[in-house]
UniProtKB/TrEMBL annotation:
Gene Ontology molecular function: RNA binding
Protein name: Transcription antitermination protein NusB
Organism placement in taxonomy: Bacteria, Bacillati, Bacillota, Clostridia, Eubacteriales
Keyword tags: RNA-binding, Transcription, Transcription antitermination, Transcription regulation
InterPro entries assigned to the protein according to its UniProt record, in alphabetical order: NusB-like_sf, NusB_fam, NusB_RsmB_TIM44
Gene: nusB
Length: 137
């Protein structure tokens, strides 16, 4: 499985989690395996579980950078893509920020509405600019 395919799989897991908030990631994976014969890629699992470990911080980033949009107004598709991509940008140093942004925009084009790709691109650009402006830890 390519990294792009694994990102898509991670997006689907995060998207499914938005409908099954009470389920653990493992329960969502088990349901996917049972219902759709899905075998989760290790990279996809690391992205989805990484997001879950930092969900509150990532959602604060989305709220801070999605100007004029409240979290409950953002589509679940765009929100899931942002959660995945912001995790990559903030917590996965082996992936260049521009790659994470490009992959996020491609996911939005594939799964989102007409406006999702530009919205995702704008939020991700703001997150990356804020990250670059912060002193390195």
């Amino acid at each position: 499985m390519t990294r792009r395919e694994a990102r898509e799989q991670a997006f689907v897991l995060i998207f499914e989690k938005s409908f099954n908030q009470g389920d653990s990631l493992q329960e969502i994976i088990e349901k996917a395996a049972e219902g759709r014969d899905v075998e989760v890629d290790p990279f996809a699992f690391s992205l989805a579980s990484g997001w879950m470990s930092h969900a509150d911080e990532i959602d604060r980033q989305i709220e801070a950078h999605s100007t004029r949009w409240k979290m409950n107004r953002i589509s679940r598709v765009a929100l899931s893509i942002l959660r995945l991509s912001i995790f990559e940008v903030l917590f996965n140093e082996e992936i260049p920020d521009r790659v994470s942004i490009n992959e996020a925009v491609e996911l939005a084009k594939k799964f989102g509405s007409e406006d999702d790709s530009s919205f995702v691109n704008g939020v991700m650009g703001a997150v990356v600019r804020t990250k670059a402006a912060e002193p390195q830890k």
